[in-house]
Design brief:
Chain lengths: 296, 235
């Protein structure tokens, strides 16, 4: 089944409350997917720095890793994850060092503003472990998973990030993901897990690398991704939604002067401020919806 | 509780859906508790489902999945939007949604009136079996898919593949139809059909607001009732 939520703020005054609003939305969607959960939040960041979200086993000593990486490596740990901030110019070098010094550490996301956390377990517990309610930011997406196409593992949890500041959550199942995956691998895109949703994320990253905007990449996926999908995606400044042409999976959106919110069900939106007067609508099948901070 | 013995209030901010439905299910024929006001529905599922008593339930806000499903006799009014499957398999009575309804409104319903003032999503009236559905706005794709009996009256437009694989049922659409599904065709709008549209509009309380002659009628061409290999590509 899976539950997806997303929140894109237009009103700066709400930014300190992003995590609180998103965790409330995520908690309501536990019933749609109790096996694992994850979220990505776009918070503070510098354009000349990259935040690498790292994941390792319970109790891992991330500060020890930072010490090994040397000067300029700033690390902030949250449960099994840690955010390592490094100068953009050093990103490739740092990734290579992590791979060499600490192969047990996985880089789950990277971006100037995006941080990404995911774990198995009840979604409400996952949100508490990473302290989502205290996070601030401009937009974020979250997912509660009911596993279908791959196993219940942290790797199989959403969101998936396959490009800088890019992330995706998916409700549905892709029927042609193996074909798309082979095509992506031939094009040089690496897919790390067995999860069909990561293929959708990789596909969008590849289209954007080819010069397409996020909106155009989502249009392309209507031709190339087969199956049932509701995709909610984030970029450094944007937030997009797409449903397959049959619109098999549920989706509801709310828009006010202060925010745009997405939920698999209205229940997830019921606690948002001013929801009584929001414009509530169901995204149409095969129609790309996109909001951008620059344009908001 | 309301002072009147005729009316009850139920606040879902504090009470459970299960308790609301249990109280409604316990009502007997001729009960004095004829009006129930439900507050804070917050998109919760299965509100006022499975009723079988001539009561009125007013729900003050948006409801989730399968509200008033399997309804018999009761009048259920939703003062907000409705989630997937409002009035699924209703047998009789009346359901009114003041806002929009999501997918599969009135699915498999056998009787009664389902009136949606706003828009209805995809597959409105899927496999309908005798219900009368009136939609003030438009309906989404695949509406009246495999419809078997009843009427679907749409004041706005219809999405793709209206009436796909329709057996019977009468579909009246005032606006545009994006496309017709397999075996669904436009049919002549005779006086008896205009009278029927008027009757359905009246049941919804819309008589005099819309001219029945503005509607077009769609129904089954009846070529797919029995499998014939020449039609294989049409399914």
């Amino acid at each position: 089944m899976c539950g997806i939520v997303g929140l894109f703020l237009k009103d700066k005054a709400l930014e300190p409350k992003l995590g609180e609003m998103l965790s409330g939305m995520l908690g309501t969607m536990c019933g749609r997917g109790p096996d694992s959960a994850g979220f990505a939040v776009y918070g503070a960041g510098e354009s000349d720095e990259v935040k690498l979200t790292l994941r390792a086993a319970e109790g891992y000593d991330f500060s020890g890793l930072a010490a090994k990486l040397g000067d300029g490596a700033d690390v902030l740990q949250r449960a099994t994850h840690a955010v390592l901030t490094v100068p953009s110019a050093d990103e490739a070098e740092v990734r290579a060092k992590i791979a060499a010094l600490a192969p047990e550490v996985t880089v789950v996301g990277a971006g100037s503003r995006m941080e990404l956390y995911k774990e198995v377990g009840m979604p409400t517990d996952v949100a508490v472990r990473f302290d989502l309610a205290k996070m601030a930011g401009t937009h974020g997406i979250a997912h509660t998973r009911m596993a279908t196409e791959s196993a219940v593992t942290t790797n199989g949890a959403h969101p998936f990030s396959t490009g800088l500041d890019q992330c995706l959550v998916h409700n549905g199942s892709l029927s042609n993901f193996r074909t798309v995956r082979r095509n992506l691998e031939r094009a040089g895109v690496t897919i790390q897990t067995e999860n069909d949703s990561e293929v959708a994320a990789g596909y969008l990253t590849w289209r954007m690398k080819e010069g397409r905007s996020l909106g155009e990449a989502l249009e392309d996926s209507l031709d190339d991704l087969d199956g049932f999908y509701t995709l909610v995606v984030g970029t450094e400044s944007g937030f997009g939604v797409l449903r397959d042409p049959i619109a098999c999976k549920p989706a509801v959106m709310a828009e006010t002067d202060q925010y745009v919110a997405f939920g698999s069900e209205y229940r997830a939106l019921a606690g948002l401020p001013g929801i009584e007067n929001a414009k509530i609508f169901e995204p149409e099948p095969a129609k790309v919806y996109f909001w951008d901070r620059a344009a908001a | 509780m309301n002072a009147s013995t005729q009316s009850h209030s139920f606040d879902l901010a504090t009470a459970k859906v299960r308790d609301l439905n249990a109280a409604l299910h316990a009502l007997k024929e001729g009960s004095n508790a004829s009006l129930w006001r439900v507050s804070n529905p917050r998109g919760l599922h299965a509100l006022a489902a499975g009723l079988d008593a001539p009561v009125t339930v007013e729900i003050d806000g948006p409801v989730g999945y399968y509200c008033a499903g399997m309804n018999k006799q009761a009048t259920v009014i939703v003062r907000g939007n409705a989630g997937v499957g409002i009035g699924e398999n209703m047998m009789s009575g009346r359901i009114e949604v003041e806002g929009d309804a999501s997918q599969a409104a009135g699915a498999t319903a056998h009787g009664g009136l389902l009136f949606i003032r706003g828009q209805a999503g995809a597959r409105c009236g899927i496999s309908m079996k005798g219900v009368d559905i009136v939609v003030g706005g438009s309906v989404g794709h695949m509406s009246a898919f495999m419809a078997q009996a009843g009427t679907l009256t749409v004041l706005g437009d219809a999405g793709e593949a209206l009436g796909d694989s329709i057996y019977e049922a009468r579909l009246y659409v005032r606006g545009s139809v994006k496309s017709l599904g397999a075996d669904c065709v436009e049919k002549e709008m005779r006086d008896e059909h205009k009278a029927q549209v008027f009757e359905k509009l009246k049941a919804a309380g819309l008589e005099g607001q819309v001219d029945p002659s503005e509607f077009k009628r769609y129904g089954s061409a009846r070529t797919l009732y029995h499998f014939h290999v020449d039609n294989a590509s049409a399914y």
